[in-house]
């Protein structure tokens, strides 16, 4: 079996994945997921499909909603190595839930009432918030803050 490259219509990677999977085809589209859960294709406009025989499925793939065409280079269909797909899957799963900062890392607050104040990152608190240690009026205080407001020093 070989991995081929599909060119999707603009911002329709999700639609293409859904409709190709409904045809029992093995497809892969690596996603980037932001803190709010919104996903975006890593390779905007492209995805991969694993086939033993392209000719058998070519018409069905080309007429699938969200698919623009199968990618070709001259007379050859664009293919990628299995190891590349394995690597992408490993990276996608391995880094999705990693925190942006490490415990005891110095950070600066980028916006809001504490803008410009340095703090110490303690830990993540849920999906979007973090606990930081601020020095306010000479006392150390733990404060929950939106992780998107932090920047590493």
TrEMBL record:
**For this UniProt entry, which segments traverse the membrane?**
41-61
Q: Which Pfam families match?
A: NusG
Gene3D superfamilies (UniProt xref): NusG, N-terminal domain
InterPro entries, per the entry: NGN-like_dom (IPR006645), NGN_dom_sf (IPR036735)
Tell me which UniProt keywords the record has, alphabetically. Answer: Membrane, Transcription, Transmembrane, Transmembrane helix
Domain NusG-like N-terminal, first and last residues per copy? 1-92
Tell me the Gene Ontology biological-process terms attached to this UniProt entry.
Answer: DNA-templated transcription elongation
Instruction: Spell out the SUPFAM superfamilies in the cross-references.
Output: N-utilization substance G protein NusG, N-terminal domain
What is the recorded name of this protein?
Answer: NusG-like N-terminal domain-containing protein
Natural source organism = Ketobacter alkanivorans
């Amino acid at each position: 079996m070989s991995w081929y490259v599909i060119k999707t219509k603009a911002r329709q990677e999700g639609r293409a994945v859904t409709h190709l999977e409904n045809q029992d085809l093995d497809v892969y589209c690596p996603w980037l997921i932001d803190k709010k859960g919104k996903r975006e294709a890593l390779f905007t406009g492209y995805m991969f499909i694993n086939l033993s025989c392209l000719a058998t499925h070519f018409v069905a793939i080309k007429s699938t909603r969200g698919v623009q065409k199968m990618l070709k280079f001259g007379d050859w269909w664009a293919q990628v190595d299995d190891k590349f797909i394995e690597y992408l899957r490993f990276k996608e799963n391995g880094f999705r839930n990693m925190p942006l900062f490490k415990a005891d890392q110095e950070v600066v607050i980028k916006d809001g009432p504490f803008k410009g104040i340095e703090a110490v990152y303690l830990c993540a608190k849920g999906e979007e918030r973090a606990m930081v240690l601020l020095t306010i009026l000479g006392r150390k205080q733990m404060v929950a803050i939106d992780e998107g407001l932090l920047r590493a020093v």
